[in-house]
Design brief:
single chain; two-stranded antiparallel sheet; 3 helices
């Protein structure tokens, strides 16, 4: 027999954290996002290749996060090591953003 789940653990009230989103949803304040996403070409002289599908999450703007990501982009193609380090730097920027927001 296999059982999963927890008992006796209260779920946190997230209303304060997502209140603005719930209000916008209730007010039917929706918008439209039109975008395209391209990957690097297979060859340096090739055209960028469009992604067939892409998931997007919209989040509030942060000048600090934008600056962190711009700094990552500035050295990403300098070397293989730069590319590897960029992955970690993007992860750090994401965690910093989430920590500041939540």
């Amino acid at each position: 027999m296999l059982a999963s789940g927890t008992r006796g653990v209260a779920e946190p009230d997230l209303t304060g954290r997502v209140g603005a989103y719930l209000k916008a949803h209730g007010d039917k304040a929706v918008g439209t996002v039109a975008a395209r996403a391209y990957g690097d070409p297979a060859r340096p002289t090739g055209a960028p290749e469009p992604y067939v599908s892409m998931a997007v999450t919209l989040v509030p703007y942060s000048a600090v996060s934008e600056a962190q990501l711009d700094a990552v982009k500035s050295g990403i193609r300098d070397s293989v090591d730069g590319c590897v380090k960029a992955v970690a730097r993007v992860g750090t920027a994401r965690v910093d953003y989430q920590t500041a927001r939540w």
